Amino acid sequence: MTGPGRRSSTFSRLLRHGFTDPSRAERLLDLPELAALRDDSVLLDALGATADPDLALHGLVRLVEAQPEDERQTLTTTLLSAKPFRDRLLGVLGSSEALADHLARHPRDWQALVTYEAADLHPGVAEFEQGLAEAVDPLSLRVAYRRCLLAIAARDVCGTTHVAQTAAELADLATATLRAALAIARTAAPADAAQCRLAVIAMGKCGGHELNYVSDVDVIFVAEAVEGADEGKAMQAATRLASHLMRICSETTVEGSIWPVDANLRPEGRNGPLVRTLSSHLAYYQRWAKTWEFQALLKARAVAGDPELGAEYIEAVSPLVWQAAERENFVPDVQKMRRRVVDNIPAAQIDRELKLGPGGLRDVEFAVQLLQLVHGRSDATLRSGSTLDALGALAAGGYVGRADAAQLDDAYRFLRAMEHRIQLYRLRRTHLVPEDETDLRRLGRSLGLRTDPVADLNKEWRRHASVVRRLHEKIFYRPLLDAVAQLAPGEIRLSPQAAGQRLEALGYADPAAALRHLEALTAGMSRKAAIQRTLLPVLLGWFADSADPDAGLLGFRKVSDALGKTPWYLRLLRDEGAAAENLARVLSAGRLAPDLLLRAPEAVAILGDPEGLKPRGRDHLEQEVLAAVGRADDAEQAVAAVRGVRRRELFRTAAADLIGSYGTEDNPREPDPGALVDRVGNAVTDLNAATIAGALRAAVRAGWGEELPTRFAVIGMGRFGGHELGYGSDADVLFVHQPREGVDEQEAARAANRVVEEMRRLLQLPTADPPLLIDADLRPEGKSGPLVRTLGSYEAYYRRWSLVWEAQALLRAEPMAGDPELGARFVELIDPLRYPMEGLGEDAVREIRKLKARMESERLPRGADPTLHAKLGRGGLSDVEWTVQLFQMQHGWELPGLRTTRTREALAHAHAAGLIPGDEAQILDEAWVLATRVRNAVMLVRGRPGDTFPSDGRELAAVGRYLGYGPGHVGEMVDDYRRITRRARAVVEELFYGA
Prior knowledge:
Layout: H1 4-16, H2 22-29, H3 41-48, H4 53-66, H5 72-81, H6 83-93, H7 97-105, H8 118-121, H9 125-131, H10 138-157, H11 163-188, H12 190-195, E1 196-202, H13 204-207, E2 217-225, H14 231-250, E3 261-262, E4 275-276, H15 278-287, H16 291-297, E5 301-305, H17 307-321, H18 330-343, H19 361-375, H20 387-396, H21 402-426, H22 437-446, H23 453-483, H24 496-505, H25 511-522, H26 527-544, H27 549-563, H28 569-575, H29 577-587, H30 592-599, H31 618-631, H32 635-662, H33 673-704, E6 710-716, H34 718-721, E7 731-739, H35 745-764, E8 774-775, E9 788-790, H36 791-800, H37 804-809, E10 814-818, H38 820-834, H39 842-858, H40 877-891, H41 903-912, H42 918-942, H43 953-962, H44 970-991
Parallel strand pairs: 2-3, 2-4, 7-8, 7-9
Antiparallel strand pairs: 1-2, 1-5, 6-7, 6-10
Helix pairs in contact: 1-2, 2-4, 4-6, 4-7, 5-6, 6-10, 9-11, 10-11, 11-14, 15-17, 19-20, 19-23, 20-21, 21-23, 22-23, 23-24, 23-26, 24-25, 25-27, 26-27, 26-28, 26-29, 27-29, 28-29, 29-32, 30-32, 31-32, 31-33, 32-33, 33-35, 40-41, 41-42, 42-43, 42-44
């Protein structure tokens, strides 16, 4: 093979047979050890059929070199004459560097691949026990284990066994290995063995008969004292035996380790005793166990040690597994477990994570196990530890649609095959898809993808992951629709009881009502019903992911009833990816947004428009509102149109807030809660300003035509002036007017008062739209003073009578509607009052502190918890705002940045000016944002304003979800609120009270 022509010909053949380094392959084939093989075309064909021909050839050279001289010919002769052996050996060498290493260290072990008997094709525990029979210590056990593994891998890579059979064989080999390890441990400590009966219970993938090549083997140990033995001493003996068994399997030697034995699924995990009696296990499971522990027990299987004790254990815990779905916290526990898995994946790995990532193996296993727990209590056919067997049983029983089950089965097999081949290469525990091109090529070829292995592998992997992602929740819900639909012949439906059980397990409080809604939505053979049947499986999942699935489904039925005959509604939900999920989030998150939507359901179109959730600016809103007023026949019709715009925009704002707080599959939740608060505050402020401008124009047109006899401006105060309005806030205002030239002052005053009364009346008329309450109580002299004053009257009052609290209230004053020039003159008038030259005197500071202290003691509602009241409580809105306002009044005259009506902006400028240290400013800002979000959450959830957390459990959970706390974490939410506001109060004590 040295001539140039010959070399060229061989080089080309090697390329054609899939070698990536033909030059190196030529050199290896030229080695004297391969003289008997190099000219045989059969060998080249067989190498070309492997996952990695270069790796296979290199492994073969190492194996031949390792043979004793007198046995080398036996290997080469067998290799050329026996095709099954040739395929097996080269298949393993081309897939596993680790097993090639084993063969180089133990050169006679290739003989384990020669036998091709029927029993050899599908061995069970007995055959593997026979293969391990001569192992007498940890070292020989490892060698025998690898020899058995060699045969499993050979059958796997040659396609003799499919992926489920390979996983079962690996579990059977693990069973035989645990038995052998226990025998070694018992032989080493006969006195311990004589005192106790010890059973080993396999859990996880080993228990489920679906083990990987390299995986922790999860176990639980149960023991009893032999008759006449002291129980305490027997448990100590059993613990020593169990610990020795674990070391035998787990410890690293010159032959490597077998696999870690993990006993952390035992009661109390690593904090609990390694070995317990059966009664101790049962006492724990009946009293203390969490939902995930019952889910884990679903796969429990007695595999080693005392068979009677193992059988007793399984018999005792099985009934507890199938009662888990009846536990009080089953649904939130299950949702929490799934989220915890996903949240713990490092961001850099999530796209390569085969097991735990979106559309990964865990999605299938989790979905199947949840359905088993829900329906296995009444259907014993579902009680299998194997994922694929259980999936088949769920399909056969009608709990999962047959087509969905078939697709999931196919995807799961492909993903498990990928996982097997990734681990087989170096026999390392990993679930990450490699990034290296060579590794991806080997992986693709090992799965039969030979044309373009890397591209085809990525394509197939993404396709299967996409199927899993699409189906993993849908399989919960589609059969619910079948339960209320007419099925094709041969299809099996869920019974009403099973459908109710499933809805209950998914968090629906009234399963019977939910089924009625599903029946109403999907009844008949119309196109509308067909689209609903497509949409609902996904929507039901999104509803179930909320705090109130029942409300979500009921709201969806109401919206669908209202819009069902419009051609665009269902098409929007079906075709606009985000619309359906956005609608589901909005309908199931509380009362306010659905109430706003149901008053004008056509606003649902906002949810499908990519720009639809962005707030409209004030100029845009005012233009729309004034145009609507201009088209109206009278003032009431005009303001009805204006309030309709306000309702629509409130819905837009609430929907954007909810979707930003919850996040969707395509867009994660907004990470900055302050941005959400600012967005709501600005949007609602702009909206209310435009609404008041519209009401003012309508009132003027109705009474005076185009012009009022006096110039008139509306000044926003409080949260309105501060651009910090919430959904339920009133609009605090002052009214100022200035008679036009030549108009009598009394006539001007009457006109100004009439226009105010008319505006307030129009904005509070009983209609389907939410009213806007205008509160003018912050005016001079409060409720006793005139409703409207001239600029001169304000000036005279403030010069002569103004109190310090009135100057403080004016810090938030900002013109909002009416005559802009008059508004600007009002601001010019009050600036010296709210930002006094040289700041506040000591008396004024003392007065502000006294007022604040009195407010804390008098205004907090009776019975309210001061640590949880968002407005007046410890570290709440009032504390932060008064602190910031004190700095504004003391330093606003010299620091222009403090001359703002907005709390967060003023706080940031106070920090920038060095008045408030950075950490303290951050503490105040965090508390203010959180308290504001709590108030917004309460309004969104309950549909009415409130300053403290709701007492109703479901409403409290909904507030938690809005604030970013998952199911079961409301206690953590309340603790966090108290901690954050307690820190803020400490800062207020220092900065405001000078403590």
